[in-house]
Design a protein that fits this description.
The complex is a heterodimer of chains A (258) and B (258). Chain A is of the alpha+beta class and 258 residues long. Chain A is 53% helix and 6% strand. Chain A has a single domain, classed as Up-down Bundle (Glutathione S-transferase Yfyf (Class Pi), Chain A, domain 2), CATH 1.20.1050.130. The N and C termini of chain A lie far apart (40 Å). Classes of the chains: A alpha+beta (258), B alpha+beta (258).
Amino acid sequence: MLELYHWAPNGPWLKPLIVIAEKQIDCTLRPIDVLAFEQYGDKVPPRSLETRLNQEGEGPLLVQDGKQLTESFFLCEFLDSAFDGPALRPTNPVAFNRMLAWARFSNEIFMPSANTLGCRQFLAPQLAGKTMPVDVLGKIELSFVREAWQRAYANDFPPAMIDDSRRKITLALDRIEKALIDGPYLLGKDYSLADVDAFSISRSLPVLAPDLVKGRPLWADWMARIEARPAVQASLQIDGWYQPENVFAPGPEHSRWG
Amino acid sequence: MLDIYHWEPNANSGKPLLAALEKGVEFQSHYIDMLAFDQHKPDYLVINPAGTIPAMVHNATLIFESTYMIDYIDMAFEGPALRPADPYELWRMRWWCRFFDQYVGPATSQLGWSSFVGPMVRERDEEELKAAIERIPLKERRMAWSKAIYGTFTEEELAESRARLMSGIAQIDEALTDHDAIAGDQFSIADLAGFMMLFGLPVMFPEAANDERTPNFMSWLRRTARRPSVQEGLSIGKNPRFAQRFQELLNGEGISDA
């Protein structure tokens, strides 16, 4: 039995939803309210060592016959390698290397940066005047995840942090625009997990940093091309969320080397 | 031909080296002296414009990211598999690689740089150092180098790195309770990458890694150290410090390693 515990179809939660739809995998979807901290309650099974230390911060949890998996990109790699359906990973070693290099850049640079802007713009206002429940705080093992929640409650996003995030989003958009010169998708002619990942994070950028996405014709065409896919359309409509691109919770840590 | 540009067989530089040796792949080794800033010199920037080590070139194509160079070697060449065939074990391998690269790796490097790289480099001429930092192409690397060179890691940063290693090594120890290797029972990229990142730790930070506190971790380090590929890889180094740490690891065998 395969179960996916997920929140709104945005960012890390969107990625596995798209892969499940693309490959038509038989999976029970279990919605979780992250703002009600259901991911730390008894709606989810007791967590394994790895998933307690989810390096992604808040994100999807996949359970297959008791085995638990987190980290949206690698969870998608698992789905692609464990299930039939159209392959979403290249077989060519160079293209495969480009896909993994994208994943690393996304996990450590792009995702944390989009997430910082998203938490400031959309999460912090929802938490204004509230305090973090102490019992939940005690259940979060990773200090950077605790600190990110507290930062959002306190609406404490120093200008230097915002500038740094915007700089890194610019790097990501430059990288995407450059990759698309050679073909309709990030790895060339074939749609892959790199596109699923980059699309899922990029989807909020027009609201988070409208000035940064201007003048990027290849990026805009690519976004529209992916958004038009039936599997992507279906995923974006899951649970009837209104503007899921505005839904954020604390994400991965910014790379400690910058 | 496979060309590997590396410094000492330690941390990132060691990963592609050990992968090639483990797989029995012939390669041309190019020693880049990191302490002389060879990685920022024009000759090297032609090969890798980012100015980072290691770099790997195969059939005139640059392969990115030290951990994923191992994936490339595994896919492009014959020899024993370095990645599990089972999708869940593959996921575990990815999860722990990310934990090594993003969570405990930067903490280990920070301790190593503040205690070793910084003092070594500070013996050089001040003007020469300034010029060397100016030449670094990536802003992130420029910041990291200038911190290491001038010893400006704050006590708070170093304390955070130590705390992270105290818990992180205990967590690796826990993961090794039921398995001989990180991802499962089969040796994989995660063992290779984790070993390269952490084999100096019992000497550098014995409070976190020792036979009493983390016996599974210690026997895993020694088991990995005895692999012929690792022994051969370590002999490629030129700086006696790393070979010495390696010997100390093997010599300090405790009763837990029976």
